């Protein structure tokens, strides 16, 4: 029969379809739908494929962009990062802009309050360097103290993470029990040839696998997240305490921090420690991180197996009967006893390893810091020797730890893997082999009389497999619990390190130092300066600078130094500087010039007497040290961060005018603009770095500036202009220098010298002594002076220079410079004279002459 194909679906439905048989009608509809689908699929599929391909290409391009552009060099980010942070109106907190995965994430930082530090002080008494390390009472005390910092609140993020972590630990234990039971059922169904039961069991097996794997991953994730949260808390706390206005970072660097307990071995070197050597980086980076990792892992390593043991034991107790349960506990007790006996002092070893790593790291840091100097002196070989020695000490220690671990590991494995398994077999066999001894063998044997032999075997197999799995899990849990003894010991080592850092910083922050007895070697009448007895008064805020009866003493750093006491450089200094009294401090090397600046800046204590000065910073006192300091950041960041600059209404035009005053106007264009970020200490020359320092001074316009040899690398013409400009800005100069040419910018002269001998500084030389040194010429001129004290008796002498002679001094100075220039040419003229003489005599003249 011929089949007429209808032209439309409606006509088909109305006419033809009704005439067709049901099977034909069905075939036709299927063919029609297939045709429609066949027509539509290619269209959709091609657009889907195209979209997919486009997305893939876009993703690839984005990935490539991220790979080539580090977060710091994308133009958009660079623009945004001009603001390193946004200050908040409260004055304390700020929002840091942190580049992260190609974006800027904002992190609000609120400074730790001083009240919190005060409330924690009692929890951090200084650590006795002879303290025995290990899991002892002291360890728990230290841990509680450190945890107060790591867990600042019971309802905070860390507590939430801990609860969540505990939930997953519990879930994993419950799932383990379920898996053990299921395991038994599957084997039972297999033994009794129950295919349906077996397949059902297998299905459940996969169902359980999903939450089990998820739980395991979550446990690992939460453990790491918890460790990071603890580390963040500790790090912020330490940063705020380390880098605060009390200059704890400087004092720690001087070696004034409390010491860490070290192994007391014969010939170990008197217990000098890293804290006393002033290296905080190992403590703050590695030790804090290890402590947090170890603590978070320990919670999982102890919490989970402990939970496992409780649950598995209770599960097994029902199956093994009372005798088996007693046996189980006897086994735990015996294992714990054996492992306690076999555990070496892991805590002490961990602390020693951290200390040795710190020493090695400090050596590497020094080379990085002083690389140029080391290279000029060709000191690489020597530094390598020092570094290798430090590394070898570390490697030898680590090797010793490895060796110690061999017998311990063997004991641990033997006890936990083999002894426990053997004990497990014995316990399981009890109710089976001696039914009279064991009251019950669980559901498998309870209805033994009513089931056939096959069923009995199947039930026993189920019981055996479940119990064996539980026992294996129990052995694993027990093993981890016992291993965690070693982890706990190691944690005690890290805890002692973190505690030492915190207690040390707390002590420095509160100026608490251990009291040292007066050394017997000190002569009668010679003052003994101990950091525990600092009696000087310091008043910050007055409009003048004053040192009254203040001894200039260099503090003795470190444990060994403290016993010697500080060194007195100047017995008692009296100096008052009012606004406009520009004072130049001179004296031989090592006499204590910079030490005066350190005491005024409060880097060193005012041991006795009175020190008064305006506050530090803008409008107050500004210090420019010998070595210029250039922070990491953009060129603009140097006087102030961009955020601070904006908030003070300062402009780039102002910065440029300041740079012109220090003859650095070329810098922004040379370095690629104000936003360029570089390691400025490597990029700028010595003189440029010092001029940058002066630029900062002009930017901040303090009322007093203590300048310590801060222009020694600047040419004297530019130096002069800068000093003049500083004075024009109304800054009173207290300058420490060896350059007599600077005298003309000052109206007072503080001369330092050895009180026992009449020292000959360039400025007090007699004319005869200075015939070959023109710098001494300054004193050849009769400058009117009013000396305050005889230099030889006091070690210092303050002279007021007659202000009316200032102009005259300048003239003389120009003359000196001119004569110095002419004298510099003398050698050349002498050579020329020699040549002319030889020529006249008809002698042969050397080519090079
Ligand atoms: N950090 C320190 N710890 C202990 N003693 C120090 C410390 N710094 C310096 N001293 C001691 O103080 C003495 C004076 O040092 P200071 O830096 O004040 O000398 P100076 O007069 O500025 O010398 P120079 O002209 O060489 O710069 C030094 O000889 C040194 O013995």
TrEMBL record:
InterPro entries: AAA+_ATPase, ABC1_TM_dom, ABC_transporter-like_ATP-bd, ABC_transporter-like_CS, ABC_transporter_sub-D, P-loop_NTPase. The keyword Cell membrane does not apply. The chain crosses the membrane at residues 418-438. Residues 545-779 form the ABC transporter domain. Keywords: ATP-binding, Membrane, Nucleotide-binding, Transmembrane, Transmembrane helix, Transport. Belongs to the ABC transporter superfamily. ABCD family. Peroxisomal fatty acyl CoA transporter (TC 3.A.1.203) subfamily. This is ABC transporter domain-containing protein. It comes from Kwoniella shivajii.
